TrEMBL record:
Any single Pfam family the record assigns to this protein: ABC_tran
Annotated ABC transporter domain residues: 4-234
InterPro entries for the chain: AAA+_ATPase, ABC_SmlMolc_Importer, ABC_transporter-like_ATP-bd, ABC_transporter-like_CS, ABC_transpr_FbpC, P-loop_NTPase
Keyword Ion transport tagged: yes
Recorded GO MF terms: ATP binding
Sorted UniProt keywords: ATP-binding, Cell membrane, Ion transport, Iron, Iron transport, Membrane, Nucleotide-binding, Transport
SUPFAM superfamilies: P-loop containing nucleoside triphosphate hydrolases
Keyword Transferase: no
Protein name from the UniProt record: ABC transporter ATP-binding protein
Highest taxon listed in the record's lineage: Bacteria
Length: 325
């Protein structure tokens, strides 16, 4: 049985169609990320699953049960908000025990469950502290522990790392991935951060203007974008003109340096690890990232480049006026 099934979900706010024909599923023990730019509808999908918004049409099933018309408290899902939404007047233990208490557990039972989950996220030593005394990363783990303590088979996380600095985000990505694997619940994660999606997800669903435009295993989506818009959003740099209405996507791994013809270097930019250059290739300008060793071997104002044509992807150009997201 799947943890979540969405069937033809639609949601509008006035004349704005926030979610259009979204269908997807999350298996037990799987992490699916809704990835897309701000305003694409991904958070609205999550809110429809949580019961915080009512879809105009379509169906939401949690563990095979139709919950479309049920209030949030009757859906038995764990929810982690972007701002964590912790209770500042309660201790760490009190925050985590809140869910089991609301589901009818006795205080001693709820606190025992809370301590087990706090041990899982590495915060058992901080159980008596107020959440206002914790760092941002610790508060994020308390919010996750509170969601886990409900025993829900589905966790919903809305931009869970967005309030942390980059170093802490990097650390928590690996922690969350390991934690998801231990818990075994289905996870629906919302983010606009491509690196976060790739690091945490089993599968990714890319959203644009309320629709899912590509979904699949995370490495497959990142390595083989279905369209030019998806490629540009995922950070692909080399989108070269193709046939009418088409674009050639050139992965940097398909480019061999030091072989083939020499082409003029039209732009250079120093980076922490080497040099970024743009080469005037006949098919279009190629942007390449050279290591310090490769940059040192650059001969004058030209670079020998050979492109493996078998690894170039030909995809539809669905951008607006050729623009990136």
């Amino acid at each position: 049985m799947t943890a979540l099934d969405l069937h033809h979900l639609h949601k509008s706010f006035g004349t704005v169609q926030a979610v259009q024909e979204v269908s997807l599923s999350v298996a037990a023990g799987e992490t699916l990320t809704l990835l897309g730019p701000s305003g694409c509808g991904k958070s609205t999908v999550l809110r429809c699953v949580a019961g915080l918004e009512r879809p105009d049409s379509g169906r939401v099933e949690v563990a095979g049960r139709d919950v479309t018309a049920l209030p949030p408290e009757a859906r038995h899902v764990g929810l982690v908000f972007q701002d964590y939404a912790l209770f500042p007047h309660l201790s760490v233990l009190g925050n985590v025990a809140y869910g089991p208490r609301m589901r009818g557990a006795a205080r001693t039972t709820a606190e025992a469950q809370a301590r087990e989950v706090l041990a899982l996220v590495g915060l058992e030593a901080l159980a008596s502290r107020r959440v206002t005394q914790l760092s941002g990363g610790q508060q994020q783990r308390v919010a996750l522990a509170r969601a886990l303590a409900t025993g829900a088979g589905l966790l919903l996380l809305d931009e869970p790392l967005s309030n942390l600095d980059e170093q802490r985000r990097e650390e928590l990505r690996s922690e969350l991935r390991a934690l998801f694997a231990r818990v075994g619940a289905g996870v629906l994660l919302v983010t606009h951060d491509q690196r976060e999606a790739l690091a945490l997800s089993d599968r990714v669903a890319v959203m644009r203007s309320g629709r899912v435009v590509q979904q699949g295993a995370a490495p497959q989506v990142f390595d083989r974008p279905a369209t030019a818009w998806v490629a540009a959003f995922l950070g692909w740099e080399n989108l070269l003109p193709g046939g009418p209405g088409r674009v050639r996507l050139v992965p940097e791994t398909a480019v061999r340096l030091g072989t083939g013809d020499a082409f003029p270097v039209t732009r250079r930019q120093r980076t922490d690890t080497g040099l970024t250059v743009t080469v005037a290739h006949p098919h279009g300008p190629l942007t390449l990232h050279l290591s310090a060793r490769e940059a040192a071997a650059l001969d004058g104002d030209a670079l020998r480049v050979d492109v493996d044509a078998s690894r170039v992807l030909d995809v539809p150009d669905d951008r607006v006026d050729g623009a990136a997201p």
